[in-house]
Amino acid sequence: MLFFMETVISGLLAGIMYSLVALGFVLIFKASGVFNFSQGVMALFAALTLVGLLSGTVPFTHVDNPSFAIPAWAAIPLTIIVMIIVAILIERFILRHLVNQEHIILFMAMVGLSYVFEGAGDIIWGSDVKVIDLGLPHGAWDWLLDTHGLYIEKIELVAAAAAVVLVVVLAAFFQKTRIGRALRAVADDHQAALSVGISLRYIWIIVWSVAGIVALVTGVVWGAKSGIQFSLSLIALKALPVLILGGFESIPGAIVGGLIIGVGEKLAEVFGGEVIVAIFGRWFEIDPGIFTATENWFAYVLALIFLLFRPQGLFGEKIIERV
Amino acid sequence: MNMMTQTSITDDGRTIGGVQMKVDNISLRFGGVTAIRNASFDIRHGEIRAIIGPNGAGKTSMLNVINGFYHPQDGTITFKGEKRRDMRPHIAATQGIARTFQNVALFKGMTTLDNIMSGRALKMKRNILWQMLYVGPARQEELENRKFVETIIDFLEIPHIRRTPVGKLPYGLQKRVELGRALAMEPELLLLDEPMAGMNVEEKEDMSRFIIDINEEFGTTIALIEHDMGVVMDLSDRVVVLDHGDLIADGTPDEVQKNQDVIDAYLGVAHD
Amino acid sequence: MLYRESGQFKTSYDADQAVFPILQDRLCIIAILAFAFLAVPFFINDYWANAVLIPFLVYSLAALGLNILTGYCGQLSLGTGGFLAVGGYSSFKLMTSFPELDMILVLGGAGVTTALVGLLFGLPSLRIKGFYLAVATLAAQFFLIWLFYKVPWFYNYNATGQINVFPREALGFLVTTQKADPVVRYLFTLSIVVVFALAAKNMVRGRFGRMWMAIRDMDIAAELIGIRPFLMKLTAFTVSSFYIGVAGALIFSVWLGAAESGETYGINESFLVLFMIIVGGLGSILGSFLGAGFIVLMPIGLKNLLVDWFGMSAVFAKHLEITTFGVLIIFFLIVEPHGLARLWQIIKEKLRLWPFPH
C-alpha cells in the first residue's frame, strides 16, 4: 500500500510538470489559434540561455569565461528579456505573415520553428549536456520519510510548488488585469476583438512572452532533474496527450489532464506488466518485463480511450453543429 | 382546393398527388431551448411547399429534422410510407431527400463539375480497385454519370464555369451550383433553405424559373424556406408558418396571408 | 504561346476525362518518363542511387500516401513513421518466412498489412477530428515503434535488435542488398512509384477522390448528399497506409538494406513526410513529387554548400543545416502556403497568356 501511495504521489508530481508544459500550449492556442509545437524546444532554449548566462558562456564559442558569469538574480530577468525578444521576433517574422492561414499551415510553421530553436540553441550555446544549479534542494524529503516512510524527492516538491505558483499568477493575470481581459476577448472571437480596437499583434507578443516565461520555468525544473539536453525538448510530446484529454483551450483542463496522465503513466509503468500477466498469463507465456518503457505511448492511448467516450475532452462543452 | 383528395390539378395544370411526407408532433430541444414545439404538417407529391416565419422560428431546424441531421425528442416522420423518429443523414439521402443550405455548403476546393459529380455519389457503385485502374466498368460509370451531370449543367446554364473552383465563384452562382449538386441526386423531395437569400432581382427571377422548371419537368416535390413573400406567394402551392417553434398556420398562400396569427407574428405583437 | 489549350477540342467526355487532357502536359510527362527510364540508367552510380534517386522515389511514394489521407481527405496524420515501420518490418517477416517469394509480392504483402494497421488506427476518426485526431495518430507512431523494439519476434530474435535485408529477386532480377546493380534497384523502385502514382491519380480524379475531398471541405454537407464520412475516412486511412507501407518496405529492403524501428522510422520521419506534402502542395499528386524532391535534396545541397564550399566543421554545419531547414520551411509556408504545385499552376496560367499580359 505504501508503495502504491508512493507511486501515486510521484505520478501526481510528474503530472504537475506535464500540466506546466500543457499550459504553455493552451495559452498560445487560446489567444492565437496556433498549436505551438515548439513549446518544448522553447523550454530547452530558455534553459540553455539561463545556464549560459549563469556560467558566463560566450555565445557561439561554447567556451565558459567565469568572469562573464552573471548571478542568478540578474540572469533570470535577463533570460526573461531574451524570451520576450524572441516573442517579438516570432510575431514580426512569422505570425504576422500567417494571419488567417489554415491551422495545419500554422502548425507546420511551428514545427519549422522548433527546428530553428533546436539549431539556434546548439549554435549559440553548444550541444553538450549542461547542469543547472539554482540551489534547488536534492534528495528525499526527510520529514515524510521519517513519519510516513514515503520517499519523495525534494526537487519534485519544489517543481510542483513552482507550477502551482505559476498557475495562480497566470489565473490572476487573466482574470484581473486589463490585458488579461483583452486576451480572453481575442480568444473568444478574433474579429470581434479587432473591431473593438484590441491590437492583435500586441496581444500575440504578450502571450508568446508569457509562454516563453512558462517555457523557462519548465526548462529549469525539468533541467534540474535530468540535465539540460536535447531530450528536454521532447517534453512537448508529453504534453500532447494532456492537451487532448483536457482540451486545447482549457486551463483547468490542462492541469487536471496533466495530473491524470501523470498518475496513469506511473501506475502503468509500475503495475502494467503484472496486470498484463495476470490477465493473459493463463494463455500466453509473457515476460512481465515486456511492459516497460511504455512512457512514450501509454499516455496517448489513455487519452485516446478517454476521447472515444467523451470527444469534447474533460472540460469542453458539447458542440451543436449547424448548417 | 380540397385537402382530402388523393390527387388534384392546380390552376397551371400540374398534378399534385397524395401525401409523400408527413411530419407528426415533432418537438426538438437543445438543452433548455425549444427549437420546434409539436409541429405537424404534410407534403404532397409534386407540390411546392413553402415554410415561412420570422428569424429564429425553427424553419432550418425543421429541414434538419426532415433530412436526419437533427434528432427530434418527440414525434415521427413518415416518408414514402415509412415511419421513423430519426435517421442518419446519409440514409435520408438514399431515400431520395436532397437539400441546399442557407449559407452555401459547397466543397470549396473542388470545381463546379466535381461538386455536381459528387452529388452522384450514391449512383456510382464501382469499387476502389476498378477506380485505381480506370478501365472497363469504372470508366463506363464515370462517363455515364458525367453525361447526366452535363445535362444539369446545361439546365442551370452554367457550362462556362464547369472547371472553376467554386470558392472563386460569386454568391449567386454558388447557390446555383449547390442546386445542381442536389439535382444530381435525382431527389424525390428537394429541400431548399433560402435559395434566393442575398440575390438581386434578376438572379431571383432566374432561380424562381429553375425551381418551377424542376418541379414541372422532373415532377420533384419541393419544400422551400424563403423570406421574400412575393416569391413565396408566386411559387408555392401551400405554406406552413412557424413562429418561435410553433406551427401557427398551414394553408394556401391566400389563406395564410389573411391569417391573423401570421400577421401578428410578422408585425410583432406582444406574446402573452 | 507554347502552352495553349485553344484549338484542342474535346469531342467526347472520354477525351475530356483523360488523365492529362492537355496535349502539352501529355508530351511533358512522356518526356520525363522517357528520361527517367531510358536516360538516367546510363549515368547512375551507387552515390546517385542511394543518396538521391531512390530516397526521392520512396519518399514520393510515402508523400503520395499521406497526401491521400491529409491532402485529399483532410485527416491530419502524424503517424507516418509508424506506418512506414509496419511496412518495413512486415516485409522483413515475409522475406524471412517465405524466402522464395518474389519482391513484388513481398511489397504487396507489406502494403496490405500496413493497410490493415492503418484501418485499425483510423477507427478513432469516427469520433474525433482535427488536431485531436492528429495527436491520436501520434499514439500509433509511438506504440508501433515501441512494439517493434520490444517484441523480439518482429526482428527474429536478432541480438542487435536490427533487421537486415537478404538477397531477393523481383521477376528474376536481384533488387535487394548492395550486391544488386544500382540500375536495377533504381528501375524497380521507379516502376513501382510510377504505377502507384498513376493509380493515385485515377483514384483522386474519380468517385473516391470526390468523396474524400467532400469530407475534407465540408463533412456535414457530404453526409447530407449520401456520403458516409466514417466509411470514407476509413478508406482514406486504408489506401494511404497501403502506399506508406509499400514505401516503408522499400526504405528497408531496397534503399537502406537495414532498419531499426526508432532510428529509421522515428517521429522525425512523420514530420518530414508531412513537410513534403505541405511544401509540395496538399491535395496534389504532382505536389507529392515536388515536395519529396525539395525535402530530399535540400539537406544534401545545404551540406555540400556549407561543408565543401565554406569549409565549415561537420558538427557546426549540421546545426546550421537544422536551423536553415526550419527557416526555409517557415519562409516557404509564408510565401506560398499552397505549395510548389500551386506555384507550377500559376506558371502554367501565365504561360497560357504569354507573351500577352492579359
Describe this structure in words.
The complex is a heterotrimer of chains A (323), B (272) and C (358). Chain A has one domain (2-236). Chain A has twelve helices and two strands, in the order ααββαααααααααα. Chain A has helices at 2-32, 39-55, 72-93, 103-125, 142-147, 154-176, 178-188, 190-195, 200-226, 235-246, 251-280, 298-309, and strands at 57-58, 63-64. Chain A has a two-stranded antiparallel sheet. In chain A, helix 1 (2-32) crosses helix 7, helix 1 (2-32) packs across helix 10 (235-246) and helix 2 packs antiparallel against helix 3. With 272 residues, chain B is of the alpha/beta class. Chain B contains ten helices and twelve strands. Chain B has helices at 59-66, 89-94, 112-118, 128-133, 136-155, 171-184, 201-218, 229-235, 253-258, 260-267, and strands spanning 8-9, 15-16, 19-30, 33-44, 48-52, 74-79, 82-84, 97-99, 189-193, 221-225, 238-243, 246-251. In chain B, strand 3 and strand 4 form a beta hairpin. The mean pLDDT of chain C is 90. With 358 residues, chain C is mostly helical. Chain C has helices at residues 13-16, 23-43, 46-72, 80-97, 103-122, 130-150, 182-205, 207-217, 219-224, 229-256, 261-264, 267-280, 285-309, 314-335, 339-353; strands spanning 163-164, 169-170, 173-174, 258-259. Chains in contact: A-B, A-C, B-C. At the A-C interface, helix 4, helix 10 and helix 12 of A face helix 6, helix 9, helix 12 and helix 14 of C.
